[in-house]
Amino acid sequence: MWTALTHILDTHVPSDMSTVQLNKSLFNTETKRATRRKVRAHKKARRTNKQRDWERFRRLRREAQKVCRQAYDQHIADLVSSDPSSNKRLGALVKSPRCDQLGVFPLKAGDILHSDPKMKAEIQFVSVFTAEGNILLYLK
Prior knowledge:
two-stranded antiparallel sheet; 2 domains; mainly alpha; 5 helices; 4 strands
């Protein structure tokens, strides 16, 4: 019974992974074609694991990235040069990169700027915790 059920599931239930839809306004035929070629080359390189296929995949990945960046730049140029009364998309685009940075920025101790994670942790620890005698006070 169990083998019959698994056989039915394997034959009739789709199991392929879906891909990202390429229907954004900046994706034209050229970008879709480059992306599909890159995906096919990656599948073949993973399947065969030959150096020649991996080199072809890397080349196609660079080309696809270049084409996508050119399409994005063209999309931005079209938005900027479009009718000023319909700049709702441009406003959303300008606001989108205003995200907070994650992580800890380089910290300055004395005259030296430290970017090493261990040094930043020590500097941060000293600024948060102070020692009075043998007792550590936790500052909030």
